[in-house]
Design brief:
Number of domains: 3
Order of helices and strands: HEHHEEHEHEEHEHHHHHEEHHHHHH
Number of strands: 9
Helix content: 40-55%
CATH topology of the largest domain: N-(1-d-carboxylethyl)-l-norvaline Dehydrogenase, domain 2
Shape: globular
Radius of gyration: 22 Å
Distance between the termini: 42 Å
Strand order of the largest sheet: 3-4-5-6-7
Oligomer: single chain
Length: 384
């Protein structure tokens, strides 16, 4: 992510300094940026001279020299709170009073990081989506201590980068990952029941998703997904507990494209990893009910989105729809996740969720109070 962020900034004419703890790590950041520029030249989106000129805006360091001159620092270290807090403490001591300190965390508390700094008002979340150069969304995560000046400046910076920002209150998983990981985990549960991974992926793409949940997991990395699910489970409850199949695949090192083997095998022609099915440990499976399975995956996202509105993580349903379209590729022709729920009818969505809760004997499907209130008022997310 660090190399991808550096490439984007340098492409937009911004000078960047990459810092890491050893030369090899800095080199990996340079290599990631250089690869993206090589691809742009190959696709004739820029000339070699333009690529060299942009790449020259990236420099590297193992210390904090020059950081006093930085307008903004974007932290993109490993997703471990103890590491991030240490980094923010160091940044606070190594930057100017005017420097904005941003974190690219995908799920961890920005507030806890801010508490390590001299001026928490200058700390904000700036969550890019992978791949950085393609995904248009950025989540701007604010804490109770973030100043309006910091928010406005960060929003302007996001627009300078050509990104679509949505402002989100600091909350575990924020918006996109919180909603999306519930969908992927539900797809995993369905896979454990029916054993037909490829059909579940096709079910999602036929609905309009850019890729199925298992292909998406391979793109992002199952290691990342499982770690985020664990964080979500610890803060939001058992509905986010990673399914046993994911944990077993994680322990086997089936992380996806980065390791050459995940739910699918890569290297030449993509093919199904037959070992994944054997990890489920079942001799018999249920029949494939496409209509029911699709509802479970989509409606569990609707319910989680309603919880986000109930908790005030975002202010408007449109923020969630924008986040899901530009952050996950939720089919734009369906108007967004909550527009789609209104099209189906909130009463029908809530009714189906209650049926799943009863049929499958699992409270994760119980409609949240926000959704139940909409149904009682015979209203939708966007009004009557």
């Amino acid at each position: 992510m660090g190399g991808g962020i550096a490439q984007l900034l340098s492409y937009k004419g911004i000078w960047v300094r990459l810092k890491d703890v050893h030369h090899a790590a800095v080199g990996q950041g340079f290599a990631a940026a250089a690869k993206l520029y090589q691809q742009s030249v190959k696709k004739r989106r820029m000339t070699k001279a333009q690529a060299y000129q942009s790449m020259a805006r990236i420099t590297g360091t193992l210390d904090y020299s020059g950081f006093k001159n930085a307008d903004i620092v974007i932290e993109a270290v490993v997703e471990k709170m103890e590491v991030k807090r240490k980094v923010f403490k160091e940044l606070s001591e190594s930057t100017s009073d005017q420097t904005i300190l941003a974190t690219n965390t995908s799920a961890l508390s920005v507030t806890k990081m801010a508490q390590e700094t001299k001026d928490p008002s200058k700390v904000i979340g700036f969550h890019f989506f992978n791949p950085v150069h393609r995904m248009p969304l950025v989540e701007i995560i604010t804490t109770p201590m973030t100043s309006k000046e910091t928010i406005v400046t960060t929003l302007q910076f996001a627009k300078q980068l050509g990104k679509i920002p949505i402002v989100v209150k600091d909350s575990c998983g924020f918006i996109v990952n919180r909603i999306l990981l519930g969908y992927i985990n539900e797809a995993g549960r369905i896979f454990e029941e029916c054993g037909q991974m490829e059909r579940i992926d096709r079910l999602a793409t036929d609905f309009g998703m850019p890729m199925g949940p298992f292909t998406l997991s391979d793109e992002v990395g199952l290691d990342v997904g499982v770690k985020v699910l664990r964080v979500l489970e610890s803060h939001l409850g058992a509905r986010f507990k990673p399914i046993d199949g994911f944990e077993k695949a994680f322990n086997k090192g089936y992380f996806g494209k980065k390791t050459g083997k995940g739910f699918y095998i890569y290297g030449g022609t993509k093919k199904t990893n037959a070992e994944i099915r054997s990890l489920l440990g079942r001799k018999s499976f249920t029949s494939f009910n496409g209509e029911e399975f699709l509802k479970r995956m989509i409606y569990i996202m609707v319910n989680e989105a309603a919880r986000c509105l109930e908790e005030g993580v975002v202010g408007e349903p449109a923020d969630i729809d924008a986040g899901m379209i530009f952050g996950t590729g939720f089919p734009p022709f369906r108007g967004g996740l909550l527009h789609y729920a209104d099209h189906i009818g909130v009463d029908r969505v809530a009714g189906d969720l209650e049926w799943f809760a009863s049929e499958l004997k699992d409270d994760r499907f119980q409609p949240c109070s926000y959704l139940a209130r909409l149904r009682d008022k015979k209203s939708g997310f966007y009004g009557r």
